[in-house]
Amino acid sequence: MAKVNLFNQVRDFVEKINEAGGKPLYELTPEEARGVLRGVQEAKTEEPDVERKEAEIEVGGGRMMRLEITKPKGVTGELGVIYYIHGGGWVMGDNITHRRLVAELAADIPAAVVFPIYTPAPEGQFPEVVEDLFKALEYIASHGDKYGLDTSHLAVAGDSVGGNMAAVMTLMAKENGFTPTIDFQLLLYPVTNADFDTETYRQFADGPWLTKQAMEWFWEQYLPDKEKRKSKEASPLMATVDELRDLPPALVITGENDVLRDEGEAYARKLDSAGVKTFSARFNGTIHDFMMLNELSASAPTRAAMSLAKAKLRWFLYGTK
User: Fold this and answer.
1) How many separate domains does the chain show?
2) Residue 226 Ramachandran class (φ > 0 left, ψ -120 to 50 alpha, else beta)
3) What residues act catalytically?
4) Looking at residue 2, what is its pLDDT?
5) 273 membership: H or E segment, kind and range
6) Model pTM?
7) What per-residue confidence (pLDDT) applies to 61?
8) From CA 184, how far away is CA 168, in angstroms rounded?
9) What's the confidence (pLDDT) of residue 111?
10) Is residue 301 part of a domain?
11) With b meaning 16 or more CB within 10 Å and e meaning fewer, what string describes 128-155?
């Protein structure tokens, strides 16, 4: 493993995980891998008071999807919407693993966070997963008032592969003439390409935390066909500058010690070259997933990144700081 630069709290977490041992994710079954992330996220952390409700909708082909809607407790009236797509390598993650992160966004913006619970890979694969997610986004845009949502103030967001699919939502929205306007896209250490030969893939191939082999396994579960990975709906970095033009303003957050750092920052630069108002911030001393991981929720990089993300969401949703 290449030399890494970890802040103390992050280093303690990584050492704890390494000392626990266990097989790497790519040697597990998908269900076993899901259990690993659930176990990691059992760490106790403070969570704001929020209210949660669920809806179930049909997204096409007889497929159903649950939506969890999280709002600040006691807030009345319609709220702006964050359509948040979770990460976890397409295989792992759900409304439980991301519970604290979602609650924090809902309470502190304040906003209603609509969290689609999509079918994980390999049971759910490309392109059905992104098609279903876009159908759910269209549903929220059309029926938001039913749930006390003001969809005239709308952002998309996601972490890791969720950042990949949030970016894809903006591309699909442009292609399909989606209304209302998406005001903002928040992409947390996103997967933007299926290229495993970047400098950071070489530097952090063995971690810490996320490894090259794990990412290769995740892609195999989600989209085994390597040729199809070149489409912009799978790899948004493959979109042309013209295809990126007029997309919503973006904040791309990356972590220093992450195989995905280069592709996330490359996507931010390409958005900027297309004339998209783009903010890009790298947080040193930390790892992939640092904003989602409960054990790192109080770490300095996470607190700083969350403050930045919340500030941009408030501004682009409501025009307030």
Assistant:
1) 1
2) alpha
3) 160, 258, 288
4) 64
5) helix 261-273
6) 0.98
7) 86
8) 13
9) 98
10) yes
11) ebbbbbbbbbbbbbeebeebebbbebbb
- Flag residues of the chain having pLDDT under 70: 1-2, 321
What letter does residue 235 receive in the DSSP assignment? -
DSSP code, position 119: P
Query: Is 2 among the domain residues?
Result: no
Tell me the two tokens of residue 269.
């630069």
Segments forming the whole domain that contains residue 14: 8-318
Tokens of 168: 């894809």
Best CA proximity match to 104, nearest among 58, 152, 46: 46
CATH number at residue 280: 3.40.50.1820
pLDDT in tens, 218-261: 999 999 999 999 999 999 999 999 999 999 999 999 999 999 99
Residue 50, in any domain of the structure? yes
The C-alpha atoms of residue 88 and residue 158 are separated, in whole angstroms, by 11
Whether 64 and 8 have beta carbons less than 8 Å apart is answered as: no
Distance CA 259, CA 199 (A): 8
237 is written with which tokens?
């970095």
Please work out, in degrees rounded to the nearest 5, the angle formed at the alpha carbon of residue 181 by the alpha carbons of 179 and 186. 125
**Distance from C-alpha of 8 to C-alpha of 306, rounded to nearest angstrom:** 19
**Separation CA 204–CA 196 (nearest Å):** 11
- Retrieve residue 18's tokens: 């390494």
H helix or E strand, kind and range, residue 285: strand 278-287
Quick check: is 1 in a domain? no
Cα Rg of the chain, angstroms: 18
Residue 321 has a pLDDT of 56
